[in-house]
Amino acid sequence: MEATTTRGGGGEHVQQGWRVRNGIDGGTVNGDAFQAGEMTFNQYPAPTAEVRWPMVIGRIPPKATAFQPRAELRREIDEARGEYGTVVLSQVLAGGGGVGKSQLAAHYAREAIDAGTDLVLWADAAEPSAVTDLYARAASAVRAPGASGEAEQDAERFLAWLAATERGWLIVLDNTTEHTPEQLWPATSRGGRGRVIATTRHRGAASTGGDRMLVDVSTYSAAESAAYLRERLERAKCARFLDEHAEELAQELGHLPLALAHAAAYMVNTRRSCGRYLELFRDRSRSLDAVLPARSGADGYRGPVTAALLLALDAARQEEPVGLAGPVLRLAALLDPAGHPEELWRTEPVLRHLGGVRGAPVTAEDALDALAVLHNYSLVTLTETAGREVTLHALTARAALDIGSGRRLSTHVAADALLELWPAADYSAAGLAAALRANADVLAGHGAAELVQPSLGIHPLLFRCGLSLVEAGLYSTSIQHWLGLATTSGRVLGDDHPDTLTARNNLAHSYWEAGRTDDAITLQEQVLADRRRIFGADHPVVLMARHNLAASYSDTGRVDDAITLQEQVLADRRRVLGADHPDTITARNNLAASYSDIGRVDDAMSLQEQVLADRRRVLGADHPATLLARHSLAVISWNAGRPDRAVEMIRETVEDLDRVLGPDHPSTVLARENLLEVTRGPQPDAAQDSSSRSPSSDGEPGSAV
């Protein structure tokens, strides 16, 4: 079929709905068109029959396989209706890529159709001109008064019709952006029978202006993820692939609908079970697009996952401060998706790094502004949770790392920044310390090779994290940490490297704290022999190794051996380190406990009172070591037959430990058990005090050098 073209009046008329070139801006228009001067007119045929209601304009996405209705989220959306009178409530469903915003909006569109809503219009709002054209088409379809065939004017006539009509309507603006013009948002509805639902990745001011209510659309709940996988695999006759790893897989995928759809399609097409697919997904040598490939049958998600998750990054890069959005996202991607401290973006290592990438100095305000931009584009989420103010989805993080470069440098920057934030004493900021431990663990998982290097040794962050685990009473976790670090260090740095010996010493300490005394002794004897061979008898780390071995000897009943060694260590530490050094005070503490064990009560009491006074003077009254010294003195007093003093002292110690370390810390639990023991009767069995003897961790990497 050929188009009939006539020329004249500075334009050309094209019949039969062919596409024509717009001579003004190089664009094209659809339908019968007339171009004259600087105006392009669309001529829509006048309706030849009465308008038939209800009507649907635009293409609503098909319902996804195993669609989850998101009951709780829909309840939040529905409860906001009915409060705006004749003003249209525009509900903006905002969230990152792949959370199911469009599917949720499509559900509301289908629901409106089923309810007999007079007009349901679905517009892809990514391109404003396409919305204008669709509005103009709708103006013709509903016979909006004044519709003339010119696109922009007819779009205005349609919006005027929406405001005046008594008919019910729903307008869905899918994928709006910060550039979606204000005039494309319907504003009023006669009788309040109109409604607008929009979807967007943008959470900034443009999505919350006017009478728009922002609704955060997050990932599936655990129950929704489980239901999705079950229904999706059952419909494909692949229910046998739904094994005991299904819940674990959903969690690994972050309950992201996009990822679950791709994973389910992959399992169906390759005949893999959840467990087998989980092994593939966890292989970090594979890119995200390799383990979540674009495949048919992925509920309409056909593009690469990385592109879908990072679609908004190009737009974010153009926002002020220009040049920071990408580097900030890549750095954040190395940290715990569950959240890291916002204060990290004020640290000197981060600001120096960002300045180097940008080629110009970067202030803390610049870095925080870049975070806000990423939040507005749903690439990160800013929260009010202390110590975890900056979160992002784990798959967004993985996608950002897949496309990024310079991971080795970024890993060290993040490690330096976390270390700068670490409190001097964990007990003074327990929540922050817990968040930093989690972030250090995730960072080490991304870049263990970068944090243990022959030229640099073990990064101090890994030592600080391990010590924090011990201080928090997480002994089993600390064993895993030190065991892995000692193994890696031995392989990379060598068995005689000071950092390797430090990691092994701290592993022995964790064994001791966990009650694995035999394992502790075996390792302590090895560490002592190696350190004496390398550094000589008087080196502080050798004294520490002897001190730790003595504590373990005492725990296993070798009290005489322990006392001999402890007396030597105390004398040597006083000579080498000084009387007020914390290690010297700890040596006196342990010797006092051993004296108590063999019945030298007076010597034990005298020494322990000195320990308590010294720790209070040097460390402060609320330091955990001071509280444990008071606990030890109370136990010695009780076992020496001085119950009145012991009961009051233990009661005070329990209260203080509960306040400083928390009710679940092992030291608090032990003190509480002792309090129950000493208040039962006149003189029950001896109270127990594992805090009376303590080995020591090496606090600094490379301290043996």
Mean pLDDT metric: 86
Low-confidence blocks of residues: 1-48, 683-687, 700-705
CATH homologous superfamily placement of the largest domain: Tetratricopeptide repeat domain
Largest sheet: 6 strands, parallel
Supply the number of structural domains: 5
Strand order of the largest sheet: 7-9-10-11-8-12
Q: What structural category characterises the helix and strand content? A: alpha/beta
Characterization of this structure:
- The chain is α/β, with parallel strands linked by helices and 705 residues long.
- The protein folds into five domains: 5-43, no CATH class; 55-146 and 154-216, Rossmann fold; 222-306; 310-421; 464-705, Alpha Horseshoe (Serine Threonine Protein Phosphatase 5, Tetratricopeptide repeat), CATH 1.25.40.10.
- Helices cover 52% and strands 9% of the residues.
- It has 28 helices and 16 strands.
- Strands 7-9-10-11-8-12 form a six-stranded parallel beta sheet, with helices on both faces. It has a four-stranded antiparallel beta sheet with strand order 1-2-5-6, with no helix packed on it.
- Strand 1 (5-8) and strand 2 (11-14) form a beta hairpin.
- Helix 3 (128-142) packs across helix 4 (151-164).
